[in-house]
Fold this sequence. Notes:
Helix content is 2%, strand content 43%. The protein has 344 residues and is mainly beta.
Amino acid sequence: MRSGSPQLGRRELLKTGAAATFATSAPTFTLAAPARSPERDAPDAPAVRISNGIVTAVLYMPDVQKGYYRGTRFDWSGQIADLRAGGHSYYGRWFSDYDPKKHDAIMGPVEDYVTGQGFDAAPAGGTFVKLGVGVLRKPPEPIRGFPTLEVVDYGKWTTRVRDDGVEFIHEVDDPASGYGYRYSKTVSLPAGQSRMMLSHRLESTGMNPIDTEMYNHNFFVLDGEPSGPNVEVRFPFQLTAFNKRGDRVELRGERLIYVKPLVDGSDRMQLKGFGLTSADYDIRVQNRKTGAGVRVNGDRPLSDLVFWTSPAVYAPEPYIRVQADRGKPASWTFTYDFYSGVGA
C-alpha cells in the first residue's frame, strides 16, 4: 500500500518532499525525487537522485518487492548506484552476476553489522536481529560464508528525501530474542562542498543492549578503472599485514599498491598499525591515471581494518565498535571528500 497523505498529488509530493513508511510485511514508499535505475538487470528498482550542485548521487531505496538489494548481509540503506563529482565517477557495478538476494549484489559505501543480535542464544529455528535487515531465522546448520537467510520480519522503513540528502529510518522489534532498535542513517551532500556525509544514530528499544562491530565495505570504482597499478590506497600510519591472501597488492610504508593487474579472483589482507583515536580513521583512495580521489574520515577509532579487492573494485574496510542501550543511543559519522588531481 502506498503511503503518504491521500490529498497530496504527485506534483505536490515532488515539490515538498515526502516521508514514506514501509509496512512490516511488504514495505513500499512514495518517491520524492524519483530517478531511473541505471542498472539494466533491475530497471524497476526504486531509486532517487540527490545533488548539491557539486556532487550528484543516485541512491537505491529499501523495498522488499523491487529493491535492488534484498540480501541478508548488508544494511539495506544508503547503497549508491552512481556518484559523480568534479567530472569523475566513484561507484558502480563491480560484480558480474546479479541476483537481488545475493550477498554481494550491492554497490556504494555499504555497511555490515557483523554480530547478529541474539544469534548465539537463539535455538535452531529461533530468531535473531540483523541491523539494517530485520528479524532473521537461525538455520539448523552452522553458517558458512554469507548465505541469504530467511527474513521473519523486515521491520518498518521510513525514508525522508530532500534535494541534497536522504534519511533512512529502520525500526525493528523481536520480543522472542529480546532485541529491538531504532536506526537512522542520513546520506547528505553539504552545500558548497565536494563532500558526502553518512550520519548514523542507533538506539536499543528491546530488553537487551546492542553490541556489535560494523564495517563499511566502500566498494570504490574510480572512473571505471580496474584494480591494478593505477590505483593507490593511503593511510596515516605504517601498515603491517596479516592473514594475507594473494600476491598482487603490497605494502609500501603507509601505502597499498598493486604490483600487477588483478584480472581474476580476489586479494585480501588484514591491516594493523592504527592507534586508539579516530585520527587513524583516515583513508585516501586515488586513481593515479585519471586523478579521481576520495578521502574517508570517521569520528570513531578503528577496531579492525581489512583491504579486499577483485578485478573491478577496491575496498578498504574500516571497522568500528557500536554499542547502544535504551536511552543511550550511539551516534557516529563518516565523511567522504572527493577531489581531483593526478598525484594529489
